[in-house]
Design goal:
By secondary structure, the protein is an alpha+beta fold. Helix content is 35%, strand content 22%.
Length: 291
């Protein structure tokens, strides 16, 4: 079974919103079901189950079930503020919308089903540039919503290995205006736990520092990279790493369930190890859909 992938427009990665961990798990579990070879519409219903989330997050089914129910009741009211159009097209504009237009809690089945709102569709489907991708399993065991957001922000700049953001921008993006006004509290309750979670549960390592403007801490600087993995080897350096996050290989070198030997045999000139694997994976899916 192939690894589910999350694709998001960079404009959505940098949007201002606040979701709980389980709301994130619901949203990301549904985004990972969006097919790359089919246009997304706001009529498609996506479903996630307590059992699947419990398995991915390594928690009990009962715990996942209880949290999913509470999350489903809040998710319909959650808003997101977008500052740019998808694919880098169109003039910059501020758009306030909702993640979903409908949430269905199916008690007997222990599942949550949702339909994305129409304005969200272009930020999740048929992305051709300025997007970020990563494996759903990269964040499945994180229990900090801030850690999931930080991981996405790092994946967006994966090629550079460093990202600097202002404290005020991070507050706005995480919708924490008015919370943790003292910088020491912001670092203690937001930055430090998020960095620890990324280091513990994701394929990236990350370190952080701060930069001052005058006597005031004004920016955070995150330095990060891929954790060393046995058997990991890139064929060639890709050209779109700042746009798209990579996923880890297993110990045998397989990526997304595709054997290393197959990837090396079918790789094209200039492709990275991951890009070759994704192309083979999507080609296989298209062929199966035609059968």
């Amino acid at each position: 079974m192939s690894t589910p992938l999350v694709y998001k427009s960079n404009a959505l990665i940098e949007a201002s919103y606040r979701l709980s961990v389980y709301e994130q798990r619901i949203i990301l579990g549904c985004i990972a079901q969006v097919r790359r070879d089919e246009p997304l519409t706001d009529q498609r219903l996506y479903t996630v189950s307590a059992q699947q989330i419990a398995q991915d997050a390594d928690v009990s089914v009962d715990r996942a079930y209880q949290h999913l129910k509470a999350a489903s009741e809040r998710l319909f009211r959650r808003e997101v503020t977008l500052h740019e159009a998808p694919n880098g097209q169109g003039a910059a504009q501020v758009r306030l919308t909702r993640w979903v237009q409908e949430v269905v809690y199916q008690k007997d089945q222990g599942t949550i089903a949702l339909r994305f709102s129409q304005p969200m569709v272009p930020y999740l489907s048929q992305l051709t540039e300025q997007f970020t991708r990563y494996a759903l399993t990269d964040v499945a065991r994180m229990d900090s919503a801030h850690a999931i957001r930080l991981y996405e922000l790092l994946c967006q700049w994966r090629e550079t290995g460093q990202r600097e953001v202002s404290v005020e921008w991070l507050r706005e993006a995480f919708q924490l205006e008015g919370k943790y006004p003292a910088i020491k509290d912001f670092k203690r309750w937001v930055v430090v736990p998020a960095v620890e979670q990324v280091n513990e549960h994701s394929p990236l390592w990350v370190k952080w520092d701060q930069r001052k403007t005058g006597r005031r801490v004004s920016h955070f600087v995150f330095t990060f990279g891929e954790k060393p993995l046995e058997g990991s080897q890139k064929l060639r350096k890709g050209s779109n790493r700042a746009k798209a996050g990579a996923a880890p290989q297993n110990r045998s070198g397989a990526l997304y369930g595709i054997p290393r030997s197959t990837i090396e045999h079918q790789a094209r000139a200039g492709e990275s190890y991951e890009d070759a694997a994704l192309r083979i994976l999507e080609q296989s899916r298209r062929e199966k859909s035609r059968l």
